[in-house]
């Protein structure tokens, strides 16, 4: 019986498993796009550089997530740079092998579709967050997401590899503002520091109390 997780974990036709070291580039913006990636272990960040040289972190990806799938949708070049935030184990799948698996294996198609739907929902939520929330609320929500609140299992500490500068880039504010809000959260007992950031459930309560609501169009 076909097991999609087993399929992604092993080397095979059109598939390789590669270890990337911390700060190693997986692919660069503008490079040829002809493979899809699946994270088995570790975290990676996606950054985009504008034509004026401004850089922004647009996503932090974790085990169980795909990236680089734009090549299936006709993208010939990478639209972002992906860098390992820690030592990673990543499965690299050729475009041809990916399309074949999606066509021939319904369970793999279901897994990939579930990923795409979850990612699209996250993008929509990020847009609403950016439009309606203050930078303080955006930071609180990002910390909750990075700590895996709302997912199966217990919340996880946030790696020290996620710097305040990275947090600032992801929510569209300055590092000094992030530092100010982080100190405020700590004094209120919403987070704690111990070599890494531990997020407490009280931070989620604070965000939910002021969650923006979209009014129904009359």
How would you portray this structure in words?
- There is one protein chain.
- The chain is an alpha+beta fold.
- The protein has helices spanning 4-9, 95-104, 106-132, 135-146, 164-171, 175-187, 201-209; strands at residues 15-20, 25-27, 35-41, 44-49, 55-61, 66-67, 81-84, 88-94, 191-193, 197-199.
- The protein is globular.
- The mean pLDDT is 88.
Q: What is the assembly state of the chains in this entry?
A: single chain
Residue share in helices?
25-40%
**Average pLDDT level:** 88
Give the termini separation.
51 Å
How many extended strands? 10
Low-confidence region ranges: none
Please write the string of helix (H) and strand (E) elements: HEEEEEEEEHHHHHEEH
Shape descriptor reads globular
Output the radius of gyration: 19 Å
Number of helices: 7
Strand order of the largest sheet: 1-8-3-6
How much strand? 15-25%
Note the main sheet: 4 strands, antiparallel
Structural class determined from secondary elements: alpha+beta
